[in-house]
Predict the structure.
Amino acid sequence: MSLRLDRVELPRGTLGELNLAFDTGVHLITGPNGIGKTSLLSALAGSLPLKSGRFLFSDKPLGHREALVVLAPNAPPEMPWIRSGLLLDFIASLYPASRRDAAFAAEVVARLGIGAFLASPLGTLSAGTARKLLLAATLVAAPPVMLFDEPTNDIDAGSGAAFIEFVREASETRIVIITTHHAGDLAALNPALHALG
Amino acid sequence: MSRMAANYLSIRHSHFRITLRDWFRGLDKALVAIASALTFILTAMVAMAVVGMAQGLALLSDASASPAHRVAVITAWQGISLVLMRALREAALMPRARQFFASLPIPPALHLRADLVLALLTYSFLWLPVAWVIANPLGTRSAPLPTTVLALATLIVISVCVNLTLLRARIRYALPCIAALAVFALPGRAPWLEAVRAGGAIIAAVALWLSYLPGAARAPAARRRSELADRLAIRTGLVIPLLANELRANFMVRVGFILATLGACLLVIELRTNDTSTASVLLFVAAVAALALYSLPALLRRTLLTRLHFLAGQTAFADRMRAAVYLVPSALFLCALLAGWVFDRGGRAGLETSLFTGLYALGVAGARAEIRVTRWVVPFAAMMLLIILGAMT
């Protein structure tokens, strides 16, 4: 399983043409603010059209009909009314082929410490709890390519350690790409480093 | 503090102006096109509406008015002003930024002052019949001017209090305001009754003031989870919960316009003394339904794709959303046509249904493709069809 960026040019940021390859395991993308890290993840997730180039998944053009990619964004969606548990279920439901079972979902929820908040509207959660909810949804969806945009910002140390353990387990059979300004926090994952800019 | 006052009020005024400008972008062309093409008909329609509303308001100071008429006028005024303020709530009350501004050291009196000024601006066209009653150009007013002014002022004060407490979800404070409105509806012209009405207005004003003091807001009660509702939400790509929460008021205003049109058509048929055997209810209901609903699918789709941008590329999300985004407004449009058809006596239901269904479909497609002219072409076309088909009746 591999993911390749073939002469990719993003519509935002200051990056030029990108030629990168990711295989199974954890990949950290670092770089200064505004260079295009978040745009790269959005483009991989299919929500930002490319200026030019293409993504290849196992040497075939990456499409989104098979639900191969999931993205945990760096900010919760602007839907303060939605019940947190419903958002988690909804995101996971979009990945029927890869979705992890209920026992794993319960374990993620428990270890990230968000069980008490699943009945609450998203707008009432703290920044850290909302971020953990999106991390949990991504871990439960578990498609072959998992993208995390600055996942360790705002979250407490215990949840951060649990997240690293879940990512380590997921990365054994998946491609995990993480953008971060704090590579040291994720050093335990022995990631491949890709410094942009 | 005076600098703060000037700044806060100017922010609210700017927000009001900019929000309205954004909303009416494109529609201004439709209004200009309709006004220039149909100057005489529109002048007659507006004059008829203003004079009709003024005659209703004049009943409030008329001792011979029946209790039923008095209640009807007050209910209509309150209903229209509430719908108007609800439709313009974002512009007038700035609810999204409210929490942030509440955290700043701005005195409650300033919040109240800004809300009052913008609420009175929002009443906009409702001032025309009020001015007509006071100016009395046709000399038809039966009560002296001070009595009329007092009655109108009391009604306006109480209705502003009801609207501002209800729209800011201060239900505890809205109740005395609604009670004051009920007291105002009591018939008769005795001095003690006038004093009771004035007392009601004062109580409503005090309730409004108290609703602005710190601690007046209450957290909403937690909602119960429903398995069925969750399943429906997931199956529809979150379209149903979006309609039930974020776009609830928007949706209700659209449905309200259609129901009000149907109600008005039936009322006119009931009250008119001339022949109504060929009255075309479907024509008006279909025109309003097409206008009210054609932009809803695009709004639903755009809102969901913006809010859940990180899922926008997922085909499963698009597939689930697509069905509900078009199905809900189209089902509502068909229900409106059906309701109009049931009461229609025009005899051209097939033609009217086809034309307005076509207009609705074109509007949906234009809004989906983000073609800007759709915003003024659809209202203009609906108005023209209404005039032409109406003239054929």
